Amino acid sequence: MAEAAAQDLLLAAAFVSDAQYNRNIPFKTSPEAVRLYHLYNHWMMRIATYFFIFLNLSLALFEEPAVYPLPFLATSVLEVLCLLVFLGRLTHFAKVTLHNVFWKDTKNICIMVAILLSLTDLAIYGVLRMYDVRSIRWSRIVRPIFLINFAESRQIRRAFRSIRNTLPEITYVFLLFMFSLLMFSLMALKLFGERNLQTAEGLPYFRNYLEIVFDLYVLVTTANSPDVMMPAFDFSSWYTLFFIAFVIINTYIFMSLFLAVVYNNYKKHLKNEIRKLAYMKRRKMIEAFNLLKEEEGEQFVVREARWKQLVKLVAPDTSSSHRELLLCISDDEQKGFVDKKSFVQLADLLNIQVVTLRVRRHPLARWVPALYGSAPSQLLRRVVRHRAFVWTYDAIILINAIFIALDEESPYISYAEWVFLALYIIEILLKVYTYEPREFFGKTQFWNWFDTLIIFAALTATILNATLKSTLKYNSQQILDIVFILRVLRLIRIVDSIQRFQVIMNTLINIVPTMLTFGGLTLVVYCVFAIIGMELFHGKIQYFPANSNAPHALECGNPALKDSLFARGKYCKNNFNNFASSFIVLMELTVVNQWHDILSGPAKLYFIAFHIVMVIIIVNIFVSFILEAFFVEYSLEKSEVETAIERKIQELGMGVQEDELQYEQLLDNMESAEHELEGEGGTKPQSKGLVFKIASKRYRTVDALLQRMFEAEIPLEDEGLSFEEILNLSPTSAVPRSPSSESTA
Amino acid sequence: MAEAAAQDLLLAAAFVSDAQYNRNIPFKTSPEAVRLYHLYNHWMMRIATYFFIFLNLSLALFEEPAVYPLPFLATSVLEVLCLLVFLGRLTHFAKVTLHNVFWKDTKNICIMVAILLSLTDLAIYGVLRMYDVRSIRWSRIVRPIFLINFAESRQIRRAFRSIRNTLPEITYVFLLFMFSLLMFSLMALKLFGERNLQTAEGLPYFRNYLEIVFDLYVLVTTANSPDVMMPAFDFSSWYTLFFIAFVIINTYIFMSLFLAVVYNNYKKHLKNEIRKLAYMKRRKMIEAFNLLKEEEGEQFVVREARWKQLVKLVAPDTSSSHRELLLCISDDEQKGFVDKKSFVQLADLLNIQVVTLRVRRHPLARWVPALYGSAPSQLLRRVVRHRAFVWTYDAIILINAIFIALDEESPYISYAEWVFLALYIIEILLKVYTYEPREFFGKTQFWNWFDTLIIFAALTATILNATLKSTLKYNSQQILDIVFILRVLRLIRIVDSIQRFQVIMNTLINIVPTMLTFGGLTLVVYCVFAIIGMELFHGKIQYFPANSNAPHALECGNPALKDSLFARGKYCKNNFNNFASSFIVLMELTVVNQWHDILSGPAKLYFIAFHIVMVIIIVNIFVSFILEAFFVEYSLEKSEVETAIERKIQELGMGVQEDELQYEQLLDNMESAEHELEGEGGTKPQSKGLVFKIASKRYRTVDALLQRMFEAEIPLEDEGLSFEEILNLSPTSAVPRSPSSESTA
User: Fold this and answer.
1) Share of chain A above pLDDT 70, in %
2) Which intervals hold domain Ion transport (chains A, B) (predicted)?
3) What ipTM was predicted for this assembly?
4) Residue of B nearest to A176 (CA)
């Protein structure tokens, strides 16, 4: 009984720190519920949920106005299917959660309301359609709610919470910014309003107050600089002082201020969340300890047998040697029990990605030892491991880059392509021959995987293309495009051979997972704005191919656009006629430039709203996130965060810290370790032919790093706050009141 | 002898913390040298130096190509004069510095070389000119060196040092960014190069590799979005994916990365400088103590008489009551001597801006006590102090804003202007009647000064304008413009009545002084680029007024610009024909938008160079600075940094912390204190009718705040490092190795 409860707590603690699950909520603990919970969190179930969320979102592609039209019946059946899946998922969740908790959680209520709204709207729309009455499918705006509220997208919810917390402060800055904008507009009206100046298009310049406000708002985004200044500048050079003051105050200072507010809140919030997680984990581990403890001398401890049983229950897929290692660390002096301090570390221990490197011989060494061990083979392997081998291939990549840039027409150059492909394949084969293949394609060998995939994709595509060309005399442009891109991507590898670039690249690779969160966030905002945009601006602008004879083809099918910058810039394809082009237009608006041209007319408010939400808030959060990720990376460069556990693994002589060793050295090291073991005949009982490698810094997430940093700050005695206190920790209370860390915050 | 030396050290310590002087350098200590040193630092001398630096820089306005042409003889005489002044200043500096130190300092060598170069170039140019040979005045680029290297512009030098330190890291990121740019360009060449696509202007699209690189570089700055994408988008919507990937990686990630690197270095550097200052001050104070100390019981102390003498020597302009206060704080228990700990604080004590608020009666209360104390007068004063009085004037300001926005033509509205002016003047008079005038116009009453100046300037200008109009029937546009601007500026005051806005406004006001540094930095970069730009592009583009009949007037006098976007946008005035328009063009380039249009042709490299220096480095430093200023401000909102000194002043009951009290309350408080004193007949010997007010947070600089924060971290026992060690503190060693502050750094 005690073990089951302890297991549950330990599981919860392990999950908390896993940063994947949100086990803040007390779950049911019956075996049935636990089984259901495991099923709920099974990767297949989660992938299926994501699939239906994205299917539901992508329905907008097939509904009117459609990119690929499907009959209404088909899309509505799909939508009902999605909604049923969501309902099923929610029911599943209800089964594993305590009832009062389930019904208190706003996100569950949210999902239910969204399902209900969607069904109602679908029914109304269907009925009206039968009577040929066209109505608006307003419930489509609700669809992103599923993406936000399903438990799997915890990161997105966190981002939304962070935005919500930032809003009050952003609002104050925004009001001040608007005040400044209105003041400057008033000055502009007074200074230029009665000068009868004209813009480059011959329109009246700065006559109407609201137009001035809009023009100056656009100037803040720098999109209409210097055009908006030119008429005043032509009139008198002194008037540029007005615009310089405007740009300094509004573009530089206020926009930085927005970034400062967003960043400050982002960080405060991040710290608070991580603090909560750390407290929660500590708390749960202590509870588990209290359930399992027995008295031993003067202290309470957990005995070895019980401890092992627990670990087997909690982490059934760890190898027994891994468990041995964990015990070695927890029961340092081999006393046969684990004390409180070490027990509390267990959740962290389980979370450390310890890769068991079986010191394996190369398969060829086992199969054909004579050949593999022969002098030429050894020489070859030594050559491949030599630095010069890397340099040679770096040189080859550079030459290849030149060949790619050269004209493709000459037959010699297309032959050269085959030569390069062959060289790259030889490189991979040589490396696999030299290094142990399972190690070479290890989970953490990002560049090896990258290389191999790119080269084999290129090989396949090139062969396919050549076959098509020679047999069907047909040149597939799509395949060619892919071949081109793959060829260029091959060149990226050169970056990894320079140490300084590696640091930057590692951080960039690290932030990819979190960037997906921003992808989700952007998707939500884009979906909402695209659906609104399609309702408002659908069909206003038409795109005609270059040689079309349609009336108003040059004015994008809209006579009002005659002679506009929009038509002159050939922007006709930037329209809201379907979901896909709406997304592209919104992307252009995110980049900001020319947005006043892209949407002229009554769309101004729509665009200001989009600018505030997307550029001022979300892009700034994105920038904050990147800034933070690099600050963490830079600070780690100096002070390596090394926990007691890692040190212990090192002490036991079973650790290989990947960062400290080049990949080649690592493998050399392994081989020598192998010889040593053979020679000594296993004098180290713990190692049993294993080397533990701590998953390298390169593959740690920013979250995990921050969490570890914070944990170092909590003293062990601090059993901390109760669950309720932890859950209600506010960002302000969470920040420790130390002036030095404040100042740097 | 000991006193003189101690005084010198104390002076030095006070100066160090003053952040105005750079007394890192051992100075001569003879009385003659000290006199010379004081002369050197006299404000007149410093203003004169600045005057000549700016005169020297502004010579570019009068030299060929000139805004206001002056004969060569005049400008060269002025230049020689400036150079002589610089030489004089340098000689003066040499007189107060130790010889070996003077000659080791690169900035002195720099100035000498610059003077020599300028003179040589001037001579060569003059001689060649006599023989009518035109040569380039290349030494003009050297002129900003004087701005950078004169000791007064320490802030600018610090900024340059910070840039120099950032360069290596920036370079790595930049190389990686260039690599990414080249890769994408290669892909673009392969994907679009052979499609025969055309841009909106009918030019070939993405054919030439170098042009692609340039176009994509421009896209990173977002200046040609979405134009650069449109031909590919028209061809196939899928190609937008290429541009989306490009923008995410290069515009969002790499540009944020630049900001991260710059910010990280900026902060590291700032911390290091402040750490150095704090150590230096501590060290000098301890040295001074050791010179003056006498044995008292078991400890060394400085006796009261000696201490007073020292303070009088060091800070001759403090009032005796201020000195009494300082002694009260230093000699807490009135033992007749000051111990080491308190002595070390003296430099800080002297630097705290303690404003001695003499509890003064209103002058009218002294002159006409019967009238001022009468019931109607008291009622009036109570009305003025009431919150409703502020609200009434806020309402008046809003109504005024509406009137300003309305048309000026109607006579009623121009009468209304007089009414508003009268109302504002009445407000100021009422306030002066109610509050003590010297207090109302105190040094720290920013808004009172602002109000009064704006209103009286507006009054003067309006009267001047009305007089000109009625007597000479002449409407001066300049005066009218000023009146308009002043009228609008009056409205700003409304912001100060909302508490939340005040925090933001205070920070904005706080950063103004440091922004001047960036002004200096920008000036240096602009000068260099303007001078190069004038040599390269002078006369390439001509500006013609709107109705000119000159040939190629529409093409800015350059047939090559026919049908270009440059000519179509009427950008002709954006040229490098003189120093002033060069500055305006560079400003436009700093804002970035349209820069590819503003400078087409061979100017690409010039612009990429400018973009890297100005936008990637300097604007990012500026943004970093604003971010830091707001982070400090936000962190102070929560944890008020209160030193022992301030607490002491509070304890003694002589402090009034302005922030805690509304201005009105403060004055009320003062009056009640006055009554109390009268009643009690001076039972508190220290107060002597004085209240000390600690200069409010609002007027502290970011530097001072950071310094104070850091000082709290140094323990008193830490006599710290030697001078050499302090001077050689590197940014990395300076950062304390605490993981928590690292993580937040």
Assistant:
1) 76
2) 47-268, 387-635
3) 0.80
4) B501
DSSP A436-491: -HHHHT-TT-HHHHHHHHHHHHHHHHHHHHHHIIIII----HHHHHHHHHHHHHHG
Kindly determine whether residue A745 and residue B256, on different chains, have CB atoms separated by under 8 Å: no
How many C-beta atoms surround the C-beta of residue A687 within 10 A?
19
Closest Cα to residue B174, out of B276, B255, B71, B252?
B255
- DSSP structure class, residue B254: I
Distances (CA, A) of A566 to A221, A227, A541: 18, 15, 11
Contacts of B202 in chain A (CB under 8 A): none
Of residues B635 and B604, more confidence is placed in: B604
Interchain CB contact of A544 with B (< 8 Å): no
Query: A419-437: per-residue pLDDT in tens?
Result: 888 999 999 899 888 887 8
**Length of chain B, in residues:** 745
Q: How far apart are CA B24 and CA B727, in angstroms?
A: 8
Residue of B nearest to A210 (CA): B405
- Give B384→chain A minimum CA distance, Å: 27
Please answer yes or no on whether A635 and B743 come within 8 Å at the CB atom: yes
pTM value?
0.80
pLDDT value of residue B2? 59
| A10's tokens | 């330990």
Compute, in degrees rounded to 10, the torsion defined by CA atoms A64, A65, A70, A74: -30
Give me the residue from A176, A485, A735 closest to B187, CB to CB.
Answer: A485
8 A C-beta contact, residue A226 and residue B574: yes
**Contact between chains at A505 and B251 (C-beta distance less than 8 A):** no
DSSP B107-172: HHHHHHHHHHHHHHHHHHHHHHHHTT-----GGGGGTHHHHHHSGGGHHHHHHHHHHHHHHHHHHH
pLDDT tens-digit profile of B178-233? 999 999 998 898 888 878 888 877 788 888 888 898 889 988 888 887 888 888 88
Is a pLDDT exceeding 90 seen at residue A464? Answer: no
CA dihedral A303, A306, A309, A311 (to 10 degrees): -60
Q: What is the 3-state secondary structure (H, E, C) of B659-681?
A: HHCCHHHHHHHHHHHHHHHHHHC
Relative orientation angle of helices B477-490 and B387-405, to the nearest 10 degrees: 140
Phi, psi (rounded to 5 degrees) for A357: -85, 100
Task: Read off the amino acid at residue A131.
Answer: Y
- According to DSSP, residue B333 is labeled T
B61 touches chain A (CB under 8 A): no
Structural element, H or E, at residue B355: strand B354-358
Does the distance separating the beta carbons of B594 and A226 come in below 8 Å?
Answer: yes
pLDDT tens-digit readout, B37-87? 778 878 888 889 889 988 998 888 888 788 888 888 899 999 999 999 999
The identity of residue A701, as a single letter, is T
The candidate with the shortest Cα–Cα distance to A700, out of A619, A643, A620, is A643
SS3 A745: coil
pLDDT of residue A137: 82
Calculate the alpha carbon distances from B273 to B5, B17, B157, B732 in Å.
26, 11, 12, 12
* DSSP 3-state of A41: coil
Closest CA to B76 of B62, B88, B97, B65: B62
CA distance A705 to chain B (A): 9
Which residue from A530, A689, A681, A687 is spatially nearest to A610, judged by alpha carbons?
A530
Average pLDDT over residues B673-698: 43
pLDDT mean over B364-387: 85
Specify whether the CB–CB gap between A476 and A461 falls below 8 A.
no
pLDDT for the residue A663: 42
Average pLDDT over residues A500-506: 78
Closest listed residue to residue A487, CA positions, set A553, A428, A427, A405: A405
- C-alpha to C-alpha distances, B201 to A233, B197, B553, B565, nearest whole angstrom: 27, 11, 21, 9
Report the alpha-carbon distance of residue B27 to residue B100 in Å, rounded. Answer: 11
